[in-house]
Amino acid sequence: MDSLEATRNRLNQVHISLRKLSDQINYNIRFTGKTRLPTYGQFQSQFHVLITQLHSITSILENNQDILDHTNAYPLPLFPTSQHEGLATTLLRKKPLPEVEKWIDEAIEHSKSLNINSQADDEFSQWCSAKIQEIKEDFQFYGFLSTEELEYLETEEGKKEASAKKEAERQREDVEMGVTTGKKALHPNQVLKFMCQGKIE
Amino acid sequence: MVHQLSLVSTIPHSSYVQTISTLQALTGLTSPQPVSTYTLICKPINKFKPKFVPGKVNQIEQYFMKCITTWDDLDSFDLATPYLSDRVSTSILFNSDSAANTKKIWTLQISDIPIAGKNQTCSAQNIFESTLVHTHTASRKDAGDEKDSGDLDKDSFLQFLEDLGYNSINQFWIKGVRFFHGDIVIEIFKVFVRDDANKDSPSDSIPLKLLDESNGFQIKAFINVPKSTDIDLITQGSAELAKLQDFLKNLIQLEIPDRIFMDSRVQN
C-alpha cells in the first residue's frame, strides 16, 4: 500500500511538471503573439526536474518490485468502464454505503446499551497469563512425554506398541534401501561429465 | 548460440513427490511439461593435431558433439514409482523397419567449457546448437547370403555423422519433467543408459537401466541468455537464480557445477 501510494505521488509530480512545461510553451505562443519558445535554460531546468522525478519513480518501482509484481489492479483495463460506470463506482467505493453506515451506528449504540466493561476484560486476560506463568514454574519439562505416558511405556502393552513402531520404521528403511539399492547418489558433476564426454569415472 | 546460466542438484527418489508438489505451488504449473530426450554423444573420428608453435596459443580444439532428439517411449511409465527392475525399454531407433523413412528432428549441440572465475553465483556456459530434420533411411542388405540375412545397413543418420567426421561413442536417454518459473527453467530428470547385461528382452527394443543406480533425480535450473555479451541480462539472470537457490534451500541444495566436469573438449 505504501509503495503504491509513493508511486502515485511521484507520478502526480511528473504530471504537474509536465503540465507546467506545456503551459509555459502555450502561454508564450498564445499571449505574446509571437511564436517564441521559452529559453534554452528554462527547458534545461524543466527537463532536469523531469528526469530526477522519473529516476525516483524507477527506483521506487525497483525497490518494491516483489510487492508490485503480485499486486493486481482492479478494474482491469478490459473492464468496460464507460458502459458499467455505476457498477465500477459501487465496487470501488471506499466509504460504506448509507445503509451500512446506519448498521454500524446501530451496532455501536447497541454495544453501549449492553454496558460491557472492556477494561475489566483486559485485566482478566492479564491475570490469566500471569497465573499461567506462575503455574508453569511448578512443573519441570524433560522430553515430550508426560509421566503417565512414560509409565504406560513400561507396561506390557506399551512395550508392544514401541516395538511395533520400531518394526514399522525398519520396514520403511528396507523399502528405501530397495529403492536406492544402498548406493550413494551420483553427484551432479559425475552425471554432467557423462553427459558431456560419454564416460563416467 | 545461447549463453546458459545454470545450477544443479540431486534429490533422492523418496523426496520426488514433495519436490514436485513444492514446485507446482511455486510455479503455478499443475501439470509440468514432460521431457523425454535421446542423446547420442559423438567424438571426432580423426585426431587433428596442429603443429605446436612456441609462443602461439593453440586455439584449435576438437569438441564432443551431442545429437539430441525426442524419445517416444512405447511403454510409458510413471516417474513417481521407483524404477526397481528391468521394466523400462525403448524401441530401437536405428536400423529397424519402423524407423525407416521417418522424419526426425535432431539438434546438434557443441558446448564450451563454462566460464572460469571466482565468486560466481552460477555456472555460465556458451552453447552452440543447430537443428536439422533428417529422414531416416535404413535399407536391408540383400538377403541372399544366409549369414547376413537380417543384418542391416548403417542408418542414414549415423552415416551422416560419419561423413561429418564424427563417431557416436555413447548414448543416453532422459526422462523427466520441466517447470517454468519466470525466466528460469527447472528440469527434474533421470538418466538412462543401455543395459547390456539384460539379454532376455524382445529383440525390437533396447533394455534400459538407470545411470544413477541409487534411483536419484537430477535437477537442473537454468536461464538461457541470447548473447554472452548482454551483461545486464546475465546479471539479472544470475540474481534470479540466486533468489531461487535461496528460496529452495531447505528443499534442494542447488549448487554450481564444477566446470572441469563440463569440459566437452577432446583431450588429445
Automatic annotation (TrEMBL), chain A:
The protein's matches in Pfam families, at most eight in alphabetical order, are given as: Med8
> What InterPro entries does UniProt report for this protein, alphabetically?
Mediatior_Med8_fun/met
Biological process GO annotation list?
regulation of transcription by RNA polymerase II
Q: Which UniProt keywords apply?
A: Activator, Nucleus, Transcription, Transcription regulation
Q: Where in the cell is it found?
A: Nucleus
Entry keyword annotation includes RNA-binding: no
Which residue intervals make up region (Disordered)?
A: 155-182
- This protein's record includes keyword Zinc-finger: no
Q: What ranges does the record list as Basic and acidic residues composition bias? A: 156-175
Query: Listed GO cellular component terms?
Result: core mediator complex; mediator complex
One GO MF term: transcription coregulator activity
Query: Quaternary structure?
Result: Component of the Mediator complex.
Summarize the protein's role.
Answer: Component of the Mediator complex, a coactivator involved in the regulated transcription of nearly all RNA polymerase II-dependent genes. Mediator functions as a bridge to convey information from gene-specific regulatory proteins to the basal RNA polymerase II transcription machinery. Mediator is recruited to promoters by direct interactions with regulatory proteins and serves as a scaffold for the assembly of a functional preinitiation complex with RNA polymerase II and the general transcription factors.
PANTHER family documented for this protein: MEDIATOR OF RNA POLYMERASE II TRANSCRIPTION SUBUNIT 8
- Entry's family note: Belongs to the Mediator complex subunit 8 family.
**Name of this protein:** Mediator of RNA polymerase II transcription subunit 8
From TrEMBL, chain B:
- Entry GO CC: core mediator complex; mediator complex
| Location relative to the cell | Nucleus
Q: What is its main location?
A: nucleus
GO molecular function terms here? transcription coregulator activity
- UniProt entry keywords in alphabetical sequence: Activator, Nucleus, Transcription, Transcription regulation
- Regions crossing the membrane: none
One GO term of the biological process aspect: regulation of transcription by RNA polymerase II
Q: Does the keyword Nucleus apply?
A: yes
Q: Which InterPro entries would you find in this protein's record?
A: Mediator_Med18
Functional summary from the UniProt entry: Component of the Mediator complex, a coactivator involved in the regulated transcription of nearly all RNA polymerase II-dependent genes. Mediator functions as a bridge to convey information from gene-specific regulatory proteins to the basal RNA polymerase II transcription machinery. Mediator is recruited to promoters by direct interactions with regulatory proteins and serves as a scaffold for the assembly of a functional preinitiation complex with RNA polymerase II and the general transcription factors.
Give the matching PANTHER family. Answer: MEDIATOR OF RNA POLYMERASE II TRANSCRIPTION SUBUNIT 18 (PTHR13321:SF2), MEDIATOR OF RNA POLYMERASE II TRANSCRIPTION, SUBUNIT 18 (PTHR13321)
User: What protein family is recorded?
Assistant: Belongs to the Mediator complex subunit 18 family.
User: Quaternary arrangement and interactors, per the entry?
Assistant: Component of the Mediator complex.
Q: Tell me the protein's name.
A: Mediator of RNA polymerase II transcription subunit 18
Q: Which organism is it from?
A: Candida tenuis (strain ATCC 10573 / BCRC 21748 / CBS 615 / JCM 9827 / NBRC 10315 / NRRL Y-1498 / VKM Y-70)
Lineage, top ranks: Eukaryota, Fungi, Dikarya, Ascomycota, Saccharomycotina
